[in-house]
Amino acid sequence: MKYLRTTLGPKSKSELGMILPHEHVFVDLRTPDQPGYAEADIDDVVRLMAPEIERIKKLGVTALVECSTGGVGRRADIDLAVSLATDFPIVVPTGNYREPWIPEWVRHASEKELEAWMLRELTEQIDETGFQAGWIKLSAGDDGMTALETKILRAAARAAAQTDAVIGSHTIRGRVVMDQLDIIEAEGYRADRFISIHTQEEKDFALNVAVAERGAWIEYDHVGRGGDNEVAELVIKALEAGCGDRLLLSHDRGWFDPAQPKGGIPKPYTHLSTVLLPELKRRGIDDGTLMRLTHDNPFEAFAR
Predict the structure, then answer these.
(1) Range of the domain at 74
(2) How do residues 248-279 score in pLDDT, each as one tens digit?
(3) Whole-model pTM?
(4) Domain holding 156: CATH number?
């Protein structure tokens, strides 16, 4: 049986309902060498973000995927604190972001060392939190992978192949996604265990379809950030192109930002439930399809 690996332990499909596959509870977009990077009082984060979690719980959301990875302020201890305060499972990644958001230790580590680090977090625990990483989050430069980003991807593919973990990457251009899939397959892993994050940023829709046809997940994660009509039309276009079994929807919203006074003002995770899904239904998308997009697909993408 497959499980979603969360802050509250493994969760089976029968224990879950709607899942948001791309959000942030805590993120620091400053580079790791900046003063105060990823520093915050845990109680302050809980105070700001717990109400946002409670809002989506009332809407039937049962889990959320944290997409803050190494290099952009991943704080698994903070994710755990928010999770415990709300009794809400959060899926936290291992891995690291792209240049220049790469800590010195990652820059100098060998592929074998990076593989061992990710494998340990996937099979044992993240730091001393007591819970396992649920997936691997990476990124690639907009114009192609650097040598360092390629090294991280190869290590990730090897760790993922031993655990069946999904690899998700912030990658803007579809041709770069194809290059990443080539590397993953060359390392002996599979395209169907890859998520093309921010697929909507690739404006050549044929490349969206090509990524899905190769077996990877495509993710439209600008719900509530893009125009509602634009997002609805893109989702329907993907469904009509036969991509419904490989499509994920989310907001890429939140979050507590330690660079802002008091963490800033979070943007809610509610727009998918309150606006987009009713709009898709109004446009003729049936309940079974909406269930697949918001319940089945996220579970299948992240469970292992």
Answers:
(1) 4-302
(2) 999 999 999 999 999 999 999 999 999 999 99
(3) 0.96
(4) 3.20.20.140
